[in-house]
């Protein structure tokens, strides 16, 4: 019934022809106004409304409380609410539960992989989570899966950017902040009241390069630090191990970490390929052998599939035929 980006919005109370959404937005769109967009769904005769927030925008996520209070269900891959200030997150979740409104966010971690739903299923069936550990970044998975001694670290980062794997500024990936947000989301699903500032992050951006003005300057200077990364890789290889950049939720220690770890080549983390994600759940039920979810954790198609799956789940919960 409506579609909006950062500049324009298009609304039609009879519904949109989704095969022409871009054309409709470009030719018939008016200036974007999130309050007017929200009001469009209020005066309709339909029993249920769902807003799908496909942004990574904090201002949009601040609308969730209002949307839920107006009876609008939410589906989103936006990490800002679930990894933002705990008080705001708690306020949204409490209102959502009290209002019997659905708020689904499977794609906030691992794109289309069933990570949130797997974790929630374990918790709801009485399992006790001990640790959740994972390669949560498709970008950093690709970089370290390729870092095998054939090319310097800086060259792999440059090639990853050229292939479209990284953010426009690779420091946004290498800083570990995106992984930290996912760690916070999973920690809260486990019952921990962690803030983003509580996460111990090992940044892969050398300190002298953190303040550089542009991505180009960063990539130009990064080769000066190849020796340090190569030394870590060689030390690991000498012990029959590989380097992987992982996020960890340690429930017993009540903490979250993002760090570069070494794994033996027989370990599942060492056997990743491409830009795959891998998440291992160690629980009282899966203590000796962790429960593992693995697959592509980045990309528009798999993320869209995760979002669409949540939309179908909303429909199912509201009484659609199974």
Topology:
Elements: E1 2-4, E2 8-11, H1 21-28, E3 30-31, H2 34-39, E4 49-52, H3 58-61, H4 64-69, E5 72-75, H5 80-83, H6 86-99, E6 103-104, H7 116-124, E7 129-135, H8 138-146, H9 153-162, H10 171-174, H11 177-189, E8 200-201, H12 215-221, H13 226-238, E9 241-250, E10 255-264, E11 276-283, E12 291-296, H14 300-317
Parallel strand pairs: 4-5, 5-6, 8-10
Antiparallel strand pairs: 1-2, 2-3, 7-9, 7-11, 9-10, 11-12
Helix pairs in contact: 8-9
Description:
This protein is of the alpha/beta class and 322 residues long. Helices cover 39% and strands 19% of the residues. The chain is built from 14 helices and twelve strands. Strands 8-10-9-7-11-12 form a six-stranded mixed sheet. The chain has a three-stranded antiparallel sheet with strand order 1-2-3, covered by helices on one side. The longest helix has 18 residues, at 300-317. It is globular and about 65 Å long. It starts with a strand and ends in a 5-residue tail after the last helix. L-homoserine binds at residue 167. Residues 13-106 form the Aspartate/homoserine dehydrogenase NAD-binding domain. It catalyses: L-aspartate + ATP = 4-phospho-L-aspartate + ADP; L-homoserine + NADP(+) = L-aspartate 4-semialdehyde + NADPH + H(+).
């Amino acid at each position: 019934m409506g579609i909006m980006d950062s500049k324009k919005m298009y609304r039609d109370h009879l519904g949109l022809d989704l095969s022409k959404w871009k054309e409709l937005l470009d030719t018939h769109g008016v200036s974007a106004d999130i309050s007017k967009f929200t009001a469009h769904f209020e005066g309709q005769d339909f029993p249920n409304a769902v807003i799908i927030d496909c942004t990574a925008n904090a201002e949009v996520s601040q609308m969730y409380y209002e949307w839920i209070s107006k009876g609008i269900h939410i589906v989103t891959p936006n990490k800002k609410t679930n990894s933002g200030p705990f008080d705001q997150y708690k306020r949204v979740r409490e209102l959502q539960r009290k209002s019997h409104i659905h708020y689904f966010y499977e794609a906030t971690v691992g794109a289309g992989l069933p990570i949130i739903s797997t974790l929630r299923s374990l918790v709801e069936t009485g399992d006790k989570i001990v640790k959740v550990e994972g390669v949560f970044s498709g970008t950093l998975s690709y970089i370290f899966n390729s870092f095998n001694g054939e090319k310097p670290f800086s060259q792999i980062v440059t090639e990853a950017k050229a292939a479209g794997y990284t953010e426009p500024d690779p420091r946004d990936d290498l800083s570990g902040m995106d992984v930290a947000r996912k760690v916070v989301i999973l920690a809260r699903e486990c019952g921990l009241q962690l803030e983003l500032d509580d996460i111990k992050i090992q940044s892969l951006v050398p300190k002298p390069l953190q303040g550089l003005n542009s991505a180009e300057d960063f990539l130009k200077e990064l080769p000066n630090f190849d020796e340090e990364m190569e030394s870590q890789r060689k030390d690991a290889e000498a012990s029959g191990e590989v380097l992987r950049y992982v996020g960890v939720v340690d429930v017993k220690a009540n903490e979250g970490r993002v760090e570069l770890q070494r794994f033996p080549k027989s370990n599942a983390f060492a056997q990743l390929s491409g830009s795959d994600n891998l998440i291992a759940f160690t629980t009282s039920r899966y203590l000796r052998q962790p429960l593992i979810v693995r697959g592509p954790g980045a990309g528009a198609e798999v993320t869209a599939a995760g979002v669409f799956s949540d939309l179908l789940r909303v429909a199912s919960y509201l009484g659609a035929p199974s």
